[in-house]
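Thread: Modeling a multi-component assembly for a lab meeting

Hi all, long-time lurker, first post. My supervisor asked me to bring a structural picture of a complex we are working on to next week's group meeting, and I have zero experience with this. I have the sequence lines for every component (747 residues in total). Could someone generate the structure of the whole assembly? Inputs are pasted exactly as I received them:
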Amino acid sequence: MSDLFLTNARLIDPEAGTEMLGAIKISEGKISEILTQDIEKAIKNFPVGKVVDCSGQYLAPGIVDIGVKIGEPGERHKESFRTAGAAAAAGGITTMITRPDTTPALDTPEALEFVARRANEAAPVHILPMAALTKGREGREMVEIGFLHDAGAVAFTDCDRVVESPKVFSRCLTYARSLGALVMAHPQDPGLSKGAAVTSGKFASLKGLPAVSPMAERMGLERDLALVEMTGARYHADCISTAGALPALQRAKDAGLDVTAGVSIHHLTLNEFDVGDYRSFFKVKPPLRSEDDRVATVAAVASGLIDVISSFHTPQDEESKRLPYEEAASGAVALETLLPAALRLVHAGAIDLPTLWRALSLNPARRLGLDAGRLAVGAPADLVLFDPNTPFVLDRFKLRSKSKNTPFDEQRMQGKVLKTFVGGIEVFGA
Amino acid sequence: MSFRAKHLLGIEQLSPEEIETILNLSDEYVDLNRRQVKHSDALAGLTQINMFFENSTRTQASFELAGKRLGADVMNMAMQASSVKKGETLIDTALTLNAMHPDLLVVRHPHSGAVELLASKVNCAVLNAGDGRHEHPTQALLDALTIRRKKGRLHRLSIAICGDIAHSRVARSNLILLGKMENRVRLVGPPTLMPSQIAELGVEVFDDMREGLKDVDVVMMLRLQRERMDGGFIPSEREYYHRFGLDAEKLSYAKQDAIVMHPGPMNRGVEIDGLLADDINRSVIQEQVEMGVAVRMAAMDLLARNLRASSDEGVMV
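Re: Modeling a multi-component assembly
Sure thing. I ran the full set together rather than chain by chain. Output:
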């Protein structure tokens, strides 16, 4: 096993909430030592050629991304494990938690085995699958939660489809609780949000697009939280995008429910007006919200009320996007833009790097019980070395993802990944 | 002449000067259309294709007549019945069209923004004949022409647009146009048919007809679609007529000389009283149809001039 010594790096420790100059020794795929002084002496004792001078750039635990959509099985023309893996490595993501909204849905242990096998063959980063909560994601019958749990499903979710029946959902929660399994849901009142393409407000009214009130998210969340209180299940709300939903989340946490929440990078960095003249690359689910909502969710990440930031990487080919806005598919690719987009929040002074890293790495790993996301002796050497400042203009055709549907095309961004390590092995180098 | 646009996609993209240019030319075409020989060669040699992805009799006929009177070769494509059903995308349709070398493309589509998408992919001038709930610019222009001819001006008027605002592209185009020309716009209708935060666009919102119509110069009624009458948005047709249907009593709150407009086709006894619709002293509904042909002639004429100017430049380069 190749040992490495990463020196002269700004170490971001999300656990301690610190940022300081130091060095990291890697041995047998794990962090074996963290030094902040007497580094010169240590370098002398280390084999030449195994020392990497990080030039004062930032070294942090690799990103743990909950909710990545990969097109296997069913839509490999949109994204494969190989292309997603390459994109993740280039984006500083060392663990991808994949979504089960594939075709067919990942709802059997056999399908999950296929994913695990393909992922290990093709991708240089860790891939851990989530499974559907109900068969075919149809909201009627629960999947084999026990078998799937044993087969390695790290969470159970029907993704953007809400389990409409409270009875079905409460039974799923109850059953999952007995196994300690995490249930993830997309809080949204299905009746109110049906057919909507944008968030309601002045923009929707002007553009004549079917809209959903932000209230639908709060209603969906309040229902889910009531059922969580009833059943005692472990619950994660995958994408909280509105200010109105935050007090309910706060109340649930204060009451001691086992509840966490996430938000997508797009909802933290874009708002409803970015859709402009019906630009379908900005169509995501839930829809981009008002600036007030965006600011509130950023503040909630900074305060820790929202625990996790995700890419919600959703590859769509040109054909599914080059349609009238209402008909166009939802979703955006984001594995390679997650970090530079998140750094916008840092550059804007809304959040500091260790706090950002809690949401990108430590919290998602903790929530899923993974040994990742920490900068500590004994932790796996899943690391990202990045320069937060280098400016660039994004060219979507240079993305490694098979699909190029990013809302950041031709936008100025700051921050580049220099190296990504998984288990101490360099899987990406700029 | 102040009209530079390549397409007519919406009122939002037009300046007040451009709106006036269209209306001034429309006046000339009204005169032409009233002569016995109603023909000009403004579009001679040009090909106009009418593509309607959504049912329309009146608007399509109006565009067809406008093109024919200007000497264009006009073709109608009923898109509902054709390739769309076979799974062809809008972009493919655009590419097919490009190969036919049309000069003017008139498009109606059930989805907001679809006409803009098509315009970005074709090589000819595109006229929006209605896209989803978004815009219907020629309707707003013909309404403006009607108002200007009846009221002698198109500014400092108080205008009430009444009915199903939420689902109406006519309402959107009209409120944008009337706002640009510095009029006071009021929207009147049940709150279930009012778009959210619409007041931020600089209009006054009313849910009572008598208050909304008080002292207005123009009453613009909108059609209520049959499928919206079933209890989903309003309790019933008869309650709607009782509270929001325009009759002589409600109209009495408007100015004495207020005119009544409707984009057609009307639901008599739902949004408007039949007798009132036929009252030649108040209703200008027939004039609106006449103005429609003239406005569409003017719009296509102006776009064709820009088309020729840009292709001349192309030759010089």
